[in-house]
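User: Predict the full complex structure for these chains.
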Amino acid sequence: MSLNEENAPETEAATKQLVFNAAERLFALNGFQNVSVRDITAEAGVNLASVNYHFGSKDSLLFEIFRRRTAELSRERARMLHEAADRHGGKPPVREIITALIAPPLRWLDPANDRRISLQFLIRARSEGGAEIREVLSTDVSHLRRFSDALLAACPQLAPEEVYWRLHFVLGMIHQNRFMELDRLHVLSDGLTREDDVAGLRQRMVDFAAAGFEAA
Amino acid sequence: MSLNEENAPETEAATKQLVFNAAERLFALNGFQNVSVRDITAEAGVNLASVNYHFGSKDSLLFEIFRRRTAELSRERARMLHEAADRHGGKPPVREIITALIAPPLRWLDPANDRRISLQFLIRARSEGGAEIREVLSTDVSHLRRFSDALLAACPQLAPEEVYWRLHFVLGMIHQNRFMELDRLHVLSDGLTREDDVAGLRQRMVDFAAAGFEAA
DNA sequence: GTCTATAGATGGATAGAC
DNA sequence: GTCTATCCATCTATAGAC
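Assistant: Here is the predicted structure of the four-chain assembly.
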C-alpha cells in the first residue's frame, strides 16, 4: 500500500521500488546533496550496491525520479486542461485554465495523499537539480506552452508578454508550497493557516490568481 | 568598485572581502553543495586556508553571507514600509505595503545593480540552506510580521487567515525570480519577456498582487 | 540478483613554516 | 596574516564472491 503504482510495462524488482521510494523521500526532506547512497540504501533496507545496479548512478536515480514524477504531474494537468477545453468549445476561461495548473499539485499536497512527498521532491529538484534536470525542464516548456496558449486565447485584451508574466507569477505561487514555507507561514499566522486544508488553499490560490489575471 | 560596501565597524582584510564576494557569487550560480572551498579560493585568487582562517568553516561562511544580505534586504523593506506609513498617517494602503515588499528585491535584480547576484544567493540559500539558515528565517518572521500586521490593518474586510495566505502568495511570486526561472520564461515567451526591464516587472508584480488582494 | 570489500577521488580542515 | 603540504573523513562506484 505504501508502494506507488507502477508505470513501467514490466514488473520491476521489489528492491528497485524500495530504493526509488526511499530516495524520493530522503531527497525531498533533506535535499539531493545532503543524502548519500548509503543513507538511501539504509532507509530502504537494501544493499549498498543496489543503487548502482538498478539505476546506474546516484545522478541517474535522481533523474529517473524527477522524470517520472514530472510526467505524472504534467499528465494530470494536461488532462484537466483538455477537459476544460471540452466543456467550453475549445476555449476555456482563465479561471479553469488556472485551476488545471493548480489543482493537481494541490491534490498531491494533501496529507491524505501518498504523493505529498513527491511534490516536495519535485519543487526541490527544480531548484537544486543539475544540468540533466534542466534538460527535462526545457522539454517541459512544451507542456507549459499548452497553458500559455490557452491563456493567450482567453485573454485577448492583454498584451502577450503580460500573459506570460502572469503565468510566471502563478507558477511562483505554486512553487511556494514547500514544507519549510508552510511551516514558516504557520508560525507567522500563529496557527491560523491550516496546512491540511488543501481544498481551501486551492480555492484561495485560484481566487488570488484569477483576480490577478483580471487586473487592468 | 566591485567591492560591496562594508558594514562592519572595523576595516577588514581585503582577502576576507575577496572570499566573501567569490563565495556569494559561486553559491548563487551553482548552489552551496556544488561549490568547494577550493573553488572559492581559486575564484578569489587567495589561499586555500583563507576560508577557515577568516570565517572558521565553510558553513560559517555561508551563514555570514546569508545573515548580512538578509539584514540588508529587510532593512530596505522596513524603511519603505515606514515611509509609506508616514505618508498615510500610520495606515498605508495595500498597494504600498506590497510595493515595500517587492521593490527592494526587484531593485537588486536589476542587471545594472551589483546586488543582482546577492538576490540569487538569498533565494537559493533559502531553499538549500541547512539548520542554521532556518534559524535566521525564524528570526526573520519578526520582520515579516510588520508586513502582515500592516496588511491586516489595511484589509479589515478580510478574514485574518486570508491575509496571511495572500501574503504567502506574494512571497512565492518574489522567490520565483531566479535566473533559471527567468530564462525558462524567456524561452517560453519566445523572447517577449525582457528580464532587464525590472521597472516593468515591478509594476506588473504589484498590479497582479494588488488585484489578488482585492479579490472577494 | 544480492552482498562484501575496496578502490579511487574529493573535500574540509589544520599544522607549521614564513 | 599568508601560504604549502597534508591529514582524515566521506562518498561514489565497482570488482568479485556467492
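The radius of gyration of chain A is 19 Å.
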